Amino acid sequence: MIERHPLCLRRRAFVRNSLAVGAAAAAHLAWPAPARAVNKRVEDFGAQGNGSTDDWLAFSNALAGADVVELTAGRTYLVARTVVVPSNRTLIGNGATVKLAGGRPSMTPVLSLEGNANITVRGLTVDGNRANQSVSTSLAENGGMHCLKSRGASQARLEDLVLRDAYSDGLYLGKARSVQRPSRDIAVANCRMENSGRSGCTVALADAVTFTGCTFARSTGGIVGAGVNMETHYDGDLISDVSFRSCTFDGNAGRGLKVDIVKVGKLVGLEVADCTFRNTKSSDLCALQLGARTGALIQGMRVLRNRVDRYLLLLRSGTTGTAVMSNVYIAENELTYGHASIKYLSSLCRNVVFERNTASRPPTLRETWKPTFIDNDW
After folding, report:
1. CATH number of the domain enclosing 223
2. Is residue 366 in some structural domain?
3. Phi, psi angle pair for 103, to nearest 5°
4. In the beta sheet, which residues pair with residue 124?
5. Can you give the residue range of the structural domain that contains 186?
């Protein structure tokens, strides 16, 4: 039997004790593990989903108490007040419907993101119950009765939604309540906005917004009636870095896409690519309007490879005053039954180019200053 020297034993005990102390210290200093997301069904908070009972309180409690809230497929959840989705929440519809009760007061969207952040809403139908609302259209935003509204929200993902029968807009993206903060970093994918009383979507004050594979259909409102309406409301408003990719604008009473920058507003960065405009019902058969009014600015606009069933209108509204457009590139678009109409652009415009477009006839020009035309077929 080999006897170990006492010094050797003491050294080994010291090492063991040191390792134990070090491990304890490391455990004490380490960051705590992130909490696991809390997943709940809205029924866990008392929702009935029968289409007649008001489930607003159940939604509010569920979104306050869980990180991920799921609905049950095939059910209709009636709400008599706006459901506000807080920050850091995911709402999964699983094909269910959230419907606004009839007779609601003005400024009652079905869902609101307010100014919150890091939100996902997917797989849900939102029904504004338009036929059973009666709000004065003279109010702001045509009564504010949207299916889904953002007031300066950020980092929001809206996926696989149907936003239908809104008294106002299917989707409204605007500024925060009390500060000039836009809705920012909003990704809208595979969503359908249909049968809206005003527009399928209004973009009023926004930055870094992408629409991919969306459909804007059958907006019937008399005020705008556009598939998408991009408009500034106040002096100095800015819309920036907005893109529409592989979207469809179908059967709207007004323009498919209406860009109308007003009140000394600015649009900096717009891309409309690989989209289809069809069944345009506007009185002048204009499917795509790219416009600004006196004092406004449009800078950095690309309109590429779209199929437009009627007219493409590039204009400054009104016959006097100035609106500046620069770096506008309109290329490889097919105007199947119409042409480009270009009105009242001023000599202050720079680098406005039409290249390799096809149309049934040459563009209509109503000004002395002309864009650059390259290899177009009309």
Report:
1. 2.160.20.10
2. no
3. 70, 30
4. 96, 161
5. 67-283
C-alpha neighbours within 13 Å on the C-beta side of residue 153: 31
What would the pLDDT profile of 286-325 be if each residue is shown by its tens digit? 999 998 877 788 999 999 999 999 899 887 655 555 678 8
**Position 277 in a domain:** yes
Give the chain's domain count: 1
Question: 138 lies in a domain?
Answer: yes
In a domain, 99, yes or no: yes
- Asked if 121 and 157 touch (Cβ cutoff 8 Å), the reply is yes
pLDDT digits (tens, 9 = 90+) for 214-255: 999 999 876 688 999 998 877 778 999 999 999 999 999 999
